Amino acid sequence: MPSAESTRASVHEQDPVRPTRDDEIAASGSELIGGPIGRRALLGTSWWTPVRVIALVAIGMFALGLIQKAPCYNGGWFFGASSQYTHACYSDIPHLYAGRGFADGLVPYFDKLNGDMEYLEYPVLTGVFMEVAAWLTPGSGSIQDQEQWYWMVNAGMLMACAAVIAVCVTRTHARRPWDGLLVALAPAFALTATINWDLLAVSLTAAAMLMWSRGRSLAFGVLLGLATAAKLYPVFLLGPLFVLCWRAGKWRDFGKAFGGAAVAWLVVNLPVMLLAWDGWAKFYEFSQERGVDFGSFWLILAQNSSDPLSTDTVNTLATLLVLLCCVGIAALTLTAPRRPRFAQLAFLIVAAFILTNKVYSPQYVLWLVPLAVLARPKWRDFLIWQACEVAYFLGIWMYLAYTTSADAHKGLPQEGYHWAIGLHLLGTLYLCVVVVRDILMPERDVVRRAGDDDPSGGVLDGAEDVFVLGPAAHPPRHAAHFAGPQVEWGERGDSPTGDSSL
């Protein structure tokens, strides 16, 4: 039986996986650009390496998303509330330039705002991002001119984040660089990229995943801590990582990751906590106090009930549901026939948080796209999910047009919006189901079927198990981790080192 190190080396010395050979949807789609990719392009022997191609495609798709917002840029944000919805080009960014005091030069977290919102309701690193964009925004002209510039400056900064995400996903799975095209071409990604500032946290999380895949546990922790300082959801990745390291006995690496995350988060937050506690705490207070909102199944329940649940009750129930999901994911991790891949569990935990939350905003899809690509790089399943998200993207704006316009025919009534919510919830659930199936049936996992173990797993990639529960505890550990791909190659009649494995 070969050692773990030699098995990993033999796998990683193979040529990169060719999606136009292994995926029927990718092969069919490639006909639009001249057919399946050739071997020389696949190996990156020209300037057009996968990283460069995918980065350029991501920037191009982002630019198309900006063009889609043109009706609002040319007046939709300012003249008539319904036009920004009927054109599906709404963005929080221009509205919050004046609404959160940036136009008046107020300092986030320190200076009180006029109106009901006393302080900026965003995490500290996102507030810094917003403030930097305000510094770069020309202060001359009308407030409409300034808001247009503020959106454009933010769009440029967010475009850089989008390119970082695409590059990081492309490089995380070394033998599957072309999977990054799923991120670059994701329609929901382009449509929602400039609704809010989520791409900052998503880019830091994608960079953290890349660092973990390279075995750099401390760098992973630092980046994840910074991501959590920009948005809450990245901290959830520490949960499945803890259970994976428990199963593999990699406590030292988890300790470095956890310590790096805690220190990085404190470095960003502690100064504001000490000097402007009320402003710093606003994000957490607002998260607790806000009621049931768009996109969640809680909204369907509330709008169809004569006695809706109180916000406190929803908070309690949502917390219990996400904790139940966490327990289920932990049990799945420890009992699966083969240790799940880190990206699979990262996707599941973030999806569980979103699905049980009292709000599922359209831009939350950005959190899931990179994780979905790493967890399930299958074009058919990814596009099914994206179709559901695009339908919801249109549905929410049509519903808001219906509620803000005097002409009801311009929008979507409440019943239709509930169907749109149900569709995008089912799309996310569908992707969760196929990921869980891959975990329970590793031979169905397209990443492992190509011969890898856990390319995003870093120190977990090829590691032996030291703690397993259930039936998975009985098979030999080496067989559980390394015999699987070898058997699959034999069953498929492919060579583990030849061109037929591409």
Automatic annotation (TrEMBL):
Keyword line: Cell membrane, Membrane, Transferase, Transmembrane, Transmembrane helix
Protein's membrane topology: Multi-pass membrane protein
Pfam families xref list: GT87
Protein origin, superkingdom: Bacteria
Annotated GO CC locations: plasma membrane
Transmembrane segments: 47-67, 149-169, 181-212, 218-245, 257-277, 314-335, 342-362, 382-404, 416-436
Region span, Disordered: 1-23, 477-502
Protein name as catalogued: DUF2029 domain-containing protein
Subcellular location: Cell membrane
GO MF, any single term: hexosyltransferase activity
Family of this protein: Belongs to the glycosyltransferase 87 family.
UniProt-listed InterPro entries: GT87, UCP010361
Record field: compositional bias (Basic and acidic residues): 10-23
